Amino acid sequence: MSMLEHLALLAEYNAVMNEKLYAAAAQLPPAALLEERKAFFGSVFGTLNHLAAGDTIWLKRFSAHPARHAALDAIRASAAPGSLSAPLAHDLPGLLALRQRLDQTIRTWAAQLTEADLDHVLVYGNMKGVVLNKRFGSLVMHLFNHQTHHRGQASTLLTQCGIDIGVTDLLMLIPNQP
């Protein structure tokens, strides 16, 4: 599997896992979604919001790539969240709608990437304003790793609420080989 095929697989995995996570979260009453659970971003809702904020921030940075991937046009035209915990929706249905748009954007964008895109060095400012120069392909891998990390936290929070989201391994999407 080429790196580009792997990135497309990770984009699909991201979307599938988010569907499962949001379906599980929808089983909780709104108060339970917002309940402080001593997680990095407080609540189940706070963790899901952080994932959407982080993805938006990274996609905004990625939209500055000289290839100007068309899938990121809407992201390019919008403002990035001011922080990693900036509220992006008032309730789970609103956050789900945003999540679905982001996941479709990520799928489409991943399909537009080329090997040459991955070798580009992206210059961007982090949330503290520090300017960094990083290989684009490594940053894309970070996007997917960050998603998996925080989805794992959300899955744990849901499990603590008595909700099992089921299998979450990437392995379920890796095709069998002849």
Characterise the protein shown here:
The chain is mainly alpha-helical. The chain has one domain: Four Helix Bundle (Hemerythrin (Met), subunit A) (Up-down Bundle), CATH 1.20.120. 58% of the residues lie in helices and 6% in strands. The chain contains seven helices and two strands. A two-stranded antiparallel ribbon has the order 1-2.
Structure at a glance:
With 178 residues, the chain is mainly alpha-helical.
- Spatial order of the strands in the main sheet? 1-2
User: How many strand elements?
Assistant: 2
Query: Which word captures the global form?
Result: globular
Distance between the termini: 13 Å
Helix content, binned percent: 55-70%
Per CATH, the architecture is Up-down Bundle
Q: What is the alpha-carbon Rg in Å?
A: 16 Å
What ranges have pLDDT less than 50 throughout 5 or more consecutive residues?
A: none
What is the CATH class name?
Mainly Alpha
CATH topology (fold) name: Four Helix Bundle (Hemerythrin (Met), subunit A)
Helix- and strand-based class? mainly alpha
How would you spell out the order of helices and strands?
Answer: HHHHHHEEH
Mean pLDDT: 97
The largest sheet is: 2 strands, antiparallel
The total count of helices amounts to: 7
CATH superfamily: dinb family like domain
* Whole-number tally of structural domains: 1
Strand content: 5-15%
Main attributes of the structure:
178 residues, mainly alpha, Four Helix Bundle (Hemerythrin (Met), subunit A), two-stranded antiparallel ribbon, 2 strands, 58% helix, globular
What is the topological layout?
Blueprint lengths: L2 H23 L4 H5 L9 H19 L10 H5 L14 H21 L2 H5 L1 E5 L5 E5 H25 L18
Antiparallel strand pairs: 1-2
